[in-house]
Each structure stands twice: as structure tokens, then as C-alpha cells.
Amino acid sequence: MLPLPPPPPLLATRQCTKQVSHDQIIISKQPIKQNSQNSDAPNNVTTKSIRPPPTLRQPQFQRTNPITWFAAVLCLIFSLLLIFFGVATLIIFLGIKPRNPTFDIPNANLNAVYFDSPEYFNGDFTLLANITNPNRKIDVRFESLDVELFFSNRIISTQSIQPFSQRRRESRLESLQFISSLVFLPKDLGVNLKKQVQGNRVCYNVRGTFKVRVTLGFFHMSYWLHSRCQIEMTGPPTGVLVARKCITKR
Asked: Which domain of life, per UniProt (predicted)?
């Protein structure tokens, strides 16, 4: 047999070099990857250990709304005005010591009482009203004055007084005549009035309603006064005042 020819040397050498170079490349790459992994591990540990603690954030400053400031200033001014006027009113009250005008009946006359029927009567009654301003530093003006005459709780006549002014510590006398003509009275009140006339003791009630205006420099104030008087008269035709009791209040 003929011997086989030997393989070409160049090809074999080329394949070996290719394999060797490929193996060297693979071997050389593996330690590089391991070194990179090993080098990263300690770096991760050190960064976690030296991480700084979280810092606290301060709240941001917020500006107050101008409308809120404006409302607060208005409330402050209003409160100061209330305090000022309260103190001024107290000083004026203590310095002036205002008093209410008074209404009194110093004299009265019962001229006639007679009945046309059991439930209708006629009467003639006159009284002298004394209206006084007791204040020492205040002038007053009576803008409305109405005086009513009652028997029991039944009105039997009314009169009005013209408005007038009063200076301090001044009194005014007004004569008022009450004429009752065919005034209806319930039967029980008519019987009671007849008994009082026969017993020479007739009781009337007088009610006054007044609107008073007070002037204090540039300040004006108006209010209502109510007067209540109980009077006792002798029988007509010469009935005179025997007793009286008057109270005036707001």
C-alpha cells in the first residue's frame, strides 16, 4: 500500500492558532468579568454605610391675604369706637344725672255725673296737670301729649296738649276738661259708678302718654313716657280731690 500523504502544514497551523487565540480570548475575558464584579461589591457596601441621614424640610412661609388684614383693622377700629362711646356715655351720665320728667295732678273737680239710660252716662270732669322737668342741666321738649280718663278699665274721655318745650327745673300747669257724652258703660260698671256717686267717693284713673325729646349739645334723643294716676274724688256737683297717686316711667 502506498503511504498517505501528510496533511498540509499551513492549514493545520492556522486552525491551531485560531483555536488557541479563541481560547485565550475566552480565558482572558472571564477574569476581567470577575474582577469587575468583585470591584463593584465593596463599592456598594461603602456607599450604603456612609449615606447621610435625611434632612428636615422647613415649612414654607405663606403671606396673609390683604382682605384678612383689612377685616382685622376694621374690627379693631369698630371695637375702639364702641369703647370710646361707652366711656363717653358713662361720663355724661354720671356728670349730668338725667331724670325723667314727671306728671302730677295737684287739683281736680268732678262737676257732673248723670245717666240717660242704665248703660249710657254723661260726665264733666276737670283736672289740673303739673308737668315738671327736674333736670338741672338738660332741656326737654314734649312733642306729643295725650291724657285719657278711665273709670275702672273703661275709657270715658280723652284730651291732648299742644307740644311745648321746658327748660331745666321748669314746671308747667295745664288745665284739662273731660266731657263725656252718652258714653257706653257695661251694666255692672254703670251700677258701680252710681254706688260710688251715692257714697260720695268716686275713683278715676288717668293715663298720660308723652313723647319727650332731649337735647345734649349736638346730640338728640327721643323716648316715650307713661304716667299712671289713681285719684279719688267726692261726689258731684262739688266734687273735689281727696287723694291721688301718680307714677311716671318709661
From this structure: Eukaryota
Vertex 162: Cα angle to 159 and 164 (nearest 5): 135
| 129 three-state secondary structure | strand
Cell of 149: 280718663
Which uninterrupted H or E stretch holds 91? helix 66-96
Q: What are the distances in angstroms from CA 70 to CA 66, 76, 83?
A: 6, 10, 20
Closest CA to 240 of 107, 112, 147, 105: 107
Most distant CA pair in the chain, distance: 193
pLDDT in tens, 11-54: 444 443 444 444 444 444 444 444 444 444 444 444 455 666 66
- Other Cβ atoms less than 10 A from the Cβ of 231: the count is 21
Whether 122 contacts 193, CB under 8 Å: no
Nearest to 99 by CA among 208, 207, 223: 223
By the 8 A CB rule, do 219 and 228 touch?
Answer: no
Q: Which band of pLDDT confidence, cut at 50, 70 and 90, is reported for residue 230?
A: very high
Contact by Cβ (8 Å): 229, 176 = no
Which helix (H) or strand (E) element contains residue 191? Answer: helix 187-198
Q: What is the pLDDT of residues 47-78, one digit of tens each?
A: 455 666 666 566 665 676 788 888 889 999 99
> How much is the pLDDT for 93?
72
Q: Report the candidate in 116, 131, 123, 175 with the shortest Cα–Cα distance to residue 154.
A: 123
Would you state the cell numbers that stand for residue 116, as one nine-digit string? Answer: 240717660
129-156 average pLDDT score: 93
Scan for cell 468583585, then name that residue. Answer: 38
